[in-house]
Amino acid sequence: MSTHWLSKINWSEDGLVPVITQEAGSGKILMFAWMNREAIKLTVEMGQAIYWSRTRKKLWHKGEESGHVQKIKEIYLDCDEDVLLLTVEQVGGIACHTGRYSCFFNKLENDQWMIIAPVLKDPKSIYNK
Amino acid sequence: MSTHWLSKINWSEDGLVPVITQEAGSGKILMFAWMNREAIKLTVEMGQAIYWSRTRKKLWHKGEESGHVQKIKEIYLDCDEDVLLLTVEQVGGIACHTGRYSCFFNKLENDQWMIIAPVLKDPKSIYNK
To answer: Which chain A residues are Cβ-neighbours of B26 within 8 angstroms?
Structure first.
């Protein structure tokens, strides 16, 4: 695989870029995360989303434990070449570690954050198999 | 206006949060930027997107020069309470400083970034009024 395309990405000082993950078809935003050079390279090679976990400081194959992997459909880079957008097929229909469809479930309504999406699966049953 | 909702946001060490801006209705991702506390407060008060420009180190009322303001429809916060998602009406149908509909116009195809969206308006005519 040619990796010339990797050189076009403007990595931040800490070697990361922000990543927006959108569901192909519905256009819904599923989550937001980070990637380093190795993560996006593996993502392209495997066809599944592999992020960089800033808290755990290691590569994070999304769904490796839960089975909720994200199959890559398209990859975009923005005008400043420092933000990635993935469109994916979300296996299991759950992207969030809380057991929800999307991570963006707090909606601002009348100066309050309202939870507007249900937990589809108990996180305990997702992660303690 | 109650500002209790502002306290729920987990600001980074530099006082910012990433912001994803999505077109209401179409679901298309228009851009990615940053906000500080003042920016999101003003955004809610004015009903238009006001970001924090990290390069210019000042508040940035999107469209103040071009007229391409973003009218806020909905505001979401993610599960970790450290990423915002705006759904907006993009006035003028141009979000990108290159004169394109969206900032995400580089698509990875066969290990190459391909420009997949046309320039709708010459940036010179957008900014040198």
So the answer is: 27
